Amino acid sequence: MSQIPLFSGASESVLVDDERGRIVYTPDVLPAELAGAWFGELRDSVPWKAQRRRMYDREVHVPRLMAHFHLVPGERRAPEAIRNAARRVIAVTGVPFNAVGLNFYRDGRDSVAPHNDHLDEIVADFPIALLSLGATRRMTIRAKEPPRRVLQIDLAAGSLLLMSYETQLHCTHAIPKTRDPVGPRISLAFRVRPARDPAEPDGFYR
After folding, report:
1. Which residues, including other chains, have CB under 8 Å from residue 176's CB and lie 6 or more apart?
2. pLDDT tens digits for 115-143?
3. Per-residue pLDDT tens for 30-41?
4. Does 155 fall in a domain?
């Protein structure tokens, strides 16, 4: 099993640690004031894109806004908050993340369906780190095979969720829609990607 480094904070919670993966949740990786400042900067400065995807026999809107950035030393196309967030997450985890995908959930109608990362788009044995900004949203993590363990995790502003590579083999994760009043949320998903295709536009990584 790939290893997830331990955080230095005493408030971390190891939610899962077995042959199907390791999941660690740590609140307050960022102080509230900094989390709020980064949320505001990213909301206003990221070139958010609305996407459409084919589902069965028709195209549908993806129910959230998205953006992606490749992280390289000296990168200046990504907003400063993303560069600072990357430095913070890399320092906390010790993982050499080189890409970040952003999701902007504008309200409770925005969501992401159950899925796992495409394994050809992440490097084996490296974890995925999810940094949350803005309103708290609930993530559901489900095992694909029996015993069908289900985790419900409320991802608060300034928190970090670390999922090992094995979780992508054995689990799906989702942010369900909710009818409860909820404010906007931005998530930053840090990954270690394979070597980038030079044909990809600078500052963008799928």
Report:
1. 111, 138, 140
2. 999 998 999 999 999 999 999 999 999 99
3. 999 999 999 999
4. yes
Domain CATH code at residue 132 = 2.60.120.590
User: Does residue 146 form part of some domain?
Assistant: yes
SS3 per residue for the chain: CCCCCCCCCCCCEEEEEECCEEEEEECCCCCHHHHHHHHHHHHHHCCCEEEEEEECCEEEEEEEEEEEEECCCCCCCCCHHHHHHHHHHHHHHCCCCCEEEEEEECCCCCCEEEECCCHHHCCCCCCEEEEEEECCEEEEEEECCCCCCEEEEEECCCCEEEECHHHHHHEEEEECCCCCCCCCEEEEEEECCCCCCCCCCCCCCC
Count of domains for the chain: 1
Average pLDDT, the chain: 88
